Amino acid sequence: MSARIIDGNAISAAIRKELRTKVEALGQANKRAPGLAVVLIGDDPASNIYVKNKRRDCKEVGFKSETCRLEKDVSQEQLLNIISQFNADPTIDGILVQLPLPDHIDNLAIIEAIDPNKDVDGFHPYNVGRLVLRHPGLRPCTPMGVMQLLEKTGVPVMGKDATVIGVSNHVGRPMALELLLAGCSVSATHKFTNNVREYVEYADIVISAVGIPGLIKGAWIKPGATVIDVGITRDEQGKLHGDVEFDEAVKRAGWITPVPGGVGPMTRVCMLQNTLFAMEKFHSGEGFEVRR
Q1: 223-245 b/e with 16+ CB inside 10 Å = b?
Q2: Helix or strand or coil: residue 255?
């Protein structure tokens, strides 16, 4: 058996094309394009590349894009003031503060300061809470992207056994919630789990989001299972690696994502989808919701 590759680059490109068509339709109706504001603190190379890619994506689909670059020693008060300005800007539908933040800044305080209607990362407690209650609004981008990758395989997920490795607030936990919403039976493993292999061997769907190269051995994969590798690590030579032992896993899985080119492009395109959703639902004057 050789697994079929889930091509995140191709799927995200098709979604961007659809978004471009929708933005062009807004222009034809004399409506403004969606607007995204990105706040970048410091000069972390990986964050710089990620923000550059987001700006390129915005240009491709016709979104307004605004980037605010701040020094690493920016105060929390200054950052909160900038977020407040974007919250009040009627041309901005989405606000994204690029993580990680400097140690002197309270991550949760920053996330909570973003208007939930503009939280296109899907990290605000209000939006995570809606997902918990099975009424999602703006969804965390990586889990949202994974669900679209699963959909594109054509393999039904309802009733399947899924294992999520890693329970971070931004990926693992909301990923488990998305799978529950889709009708899966979900197991979540973490650093205190003693028998990760057993959970993986039993799973029809394996999603790993840890960031440890080769953590999930190919021999553990159930024949025909769908494997989504969210983990990404760059070695000393600059090569990117996932959590899954790809060369062996591809011999057993039914479907598998590569690293790179799998989940990463979907995370970015889901941020665009969230921005358009926020504009149409919350900021267009039609169906406007006030959240407190």
Answers
A1: eebbbbbbbbbeeeeeeebbbbb
A2: strand
Convert the pLDDT of each residue in 9-35 to its tens digit: 999 999 999 999 999 999 999 999 999
Dihedral sign for Cα 139, 136, 196, 219, please: negative
Task: Tell me: do 170 and 57 sit in the same domain.
Answer: no
Q: Are 161 and 250 within one domain?
A: yes
CATH of the domain at 107: 3.40.50.10860
State the catalytic residue, choosing from 98, 118, 160, 229: 98
Give me the catalytic one of 57, 115, 121, 243. Answer: 121
Per the annotation, the verdict on 98 as an active-site residue is yes
Any domain includes 239: yes
The DSSP secondary-structure symbol of 123 reads: -
Task: Answer whether 203's CB lies under 8 Å from 186's CB.
Answer: no
Q: What is the pLDDT averaged over residues 181-206?
A: 97
- Rounded to whole angstroms, the Cα distance separating 181 from 170 reads 17
- CA atoms of 142 and 209, how far apart (whole Å): 10
Model confidence pTM above 0.70: yes
* Claim to verify: residue 111 and residue 55 sit in the same structural domain: yes
155 shares its domain with 253:
yes
Q: How many domains does the chain have?
A: 2
Nearest to 230 by CA among 112, 110, 144: 144
Please state, in angstroms and rounded to a whole number, the distance separating the CA atoms of residues 157 and 206. Answer: 12
CATH of the domain at 195: 3.40.50.720
88 lies in the same domain as 185: no
Shared domain for 171 and 252, answered yes or no, is yes
Is 121 a catalytic site residue? yes
Report the pLDDT value the prediction gives residue 283, as an integer from 0 to 100.
84
Residue with tokens 């789990």: 193
Of 140, 95, 142, the closest CA to residue 267 belongs to 142
- Residue 32 CA: distances (Å) to CA of 26, 143, 288: 7, 29, 16
